Automatic annotation (TrEMBL):
Belongs to the IspD/TarI cytidylyltransferase family. IspD subfamily. It comes from the Bacteria. Its EC number is 2.7.7.60. Keywords: Isoprene biosynthesis, Nucleotidyltransferase, Transferase. Pathway: Isoprenoid biosynthesis; isopentenyl diphosphate biosynthesis via DXP pathway; isopentenyl diphosphate from 1-deoxy-D-xylulose 5-phosphate: step 2/6. GO terms for biological process: isopentenyl diphosphate biosynthetic process, methylerythritol 4-phosphate pathway. It catalyses: 2-C-methyl-D-erythritol 4-phosphate + CTP + H(+) = 4-CDP-2-C-methyl-D-erythritol + diphosphate. It is an enzyme of class 2 (transferase). It holds the Pfam family IspD. InterPro entries: IspD, IspD/TarI, IspD/TarI_cytidylyltransf_bact, ISPD_synthase_CS, Nucleotide-diphossugar_trans. This is 2-C-methyl-D-erythritol 4-phosphate cytidylyltransferase. GO terms for molecular function: 2-C-methyl-D-erythritol 4-phosphate cytidylyltransferase activity.
Amino acid sequence: GDVAVLVPAAGAGVRLGGGGPKALRHLGGEPMLVHAVRRVAAAPSVSAIVVAAPPSEVDAVRSLLAPLAPVIVVAGGAERQESVAAALAAVPEGPDIILVHDAARALAPPSLVESVAAAVRAGSAAVIPVLPVVDTVKEVGADEVVLGTVDRSALRAVQTPQGFRRSVLAAAHASAADSLTDDAGLVEKQGYR
Ligand code: C5P
């Protein structure tokens, strides 16, 4: 395989509410991270998986994932971007394509991993999976007063895995200043299509 997948899983789960790190919360009897890694490992192009775990859970996550696939586990950081950077630094030499996949997106199928990887292999520097926005979206001002209705036909909700040529993602992270919620945002700022 020519693909390495980074799995940021170090979030504290604050928005989700009490009960510990989101990636380790259960869905159908298993941690979301287990669901996510099992599906990533089932994609034939994937030759390396690097998980960024909550720093206090690195050993536990290693034991949790060892039965599924050979997985490298590193300690994540305070921000998602730091967790991705830590995982990126641990990728072995070899893979030319790097995917970044949120552990919280536990049910993304192996076929999505393959199609994102295939688009990068076909020549794109950066590729993201998206869905059309189906809800009506309002722009609001102070006091939640509606300013207008956004044209949703041009909007897309962004998912993961996001795929990159390795050199492109490495350069984006090396020059990253402000913290963004997704890796494609860093790459956009570098001017890549
Ligand atoms: O909080 P958010 O939905 O942006 O988190 C997306 C993914 O990034 C989750 O899988 C979460 O565990 C991970 N994350 C991380 N390190 C952080 C914050 C979030 O690995 N410091």
